[in-house]
Amino acid sequence: MVVRDLNREQLNELKLAFLCEKAGGTASYVDLADAEDIPDETIFSHYEGIEFTEDDFFCGHA
Question: What is the rounded distance in angstroms from the CA atom of residue 27 to the CA atom of residue 37?
Answer without folding.
Answer: 15
